[in-house]
Amino acid sequence: QGYQSNSSWYLMTLIVPLNLPKTNLSLSRSGKNIHVNCLVRKKKIILTPEEWVRQHFIAYFIDKLKYPKGLLTIEKKIQYGGLEKRWDLAVFMRDQSCFLLLECKAPSIPINQAVFEQSLTYYKELQAEFLVMSNGNDHVILKKEINGFKRLTDFPIYNAPTA
User: Fold this and answer.
1) What is the DSSP letter of 7?
2) Do the Cβ atoms of 58 and 38 come closer than 8 Å?
3) Where are the beta strands (DSSP E) in 83-134?
4) How many whole angstroms separate alpha carbon 58 and alpha carbon 65?
5) CB atoms < 10 A from the CB of 29, how many?
6) DSSP assignment, residue 86?
7) 103 CB contacts (<8 Å, ≥6 apart)?
8) What are phi and psi of 4, to 5 degrees?
9) Strand, coil or helix: what is 136?
């Protein structure tokens, strides 16, 4: 409880440098909460470490990689094994097939086997061409292949022909 009264410490735990291009996010404060104005949802969202990562990706995908903003979806519900789950971010093609599925974690969370297995839950539903897992610093970029996944070093270009 004590950390919330020290708002500068709280803010520093949220706003940390990431291994992504810098972006100008619109932040505001309401009581003890910091909010970020989401470019896709067009509303203020409470800023958490995971949301900090997601918002950087949204800006990167739209501004740098030119992914169409209207084809990005955030935190949509799916049913899995009787549970309701939400994916973090999915980028769709104009034909509604899934181009890229992104699982975001807070910068303090390692990208490990458990994160991969969680991502596969959403992947099975969406069958994305690319599966990305990131904590904002470490990025795992996978491309769907016939017999599994191939690891890539760069984020995919939207609408690029696939081999």
Assistant:
1) H
2) yes
3) 83-86, 89-92, 98-104, 130-134
4) 10
5) 11
6) E
7) 87, 88, 115, 118, 119, 122, 131, 132, 133, 134
8) -70, -30
9) coil
Interatomic CA distance for residues 108 and 123, integer angstroms = 23
Matching residue, tokens 């910068």: 107
Give the percent of the chain with pLDDT over 70: 83
Say which residue, 121 or 153, is predicted with more confidence: 153
Token look-up 């990208």 returns 111
Helix (H, G, I), strand (E, B) or coil at 20: coil
Which tokens in the block code for residue 143? 């491309």
pLDDT at 44 over 50: yes
Q: Which residues are bridge partners to 141 per DSSP?
A: 132, 152
**Count of C-beta atoms within a 10 Å radius of residue 100:** 24
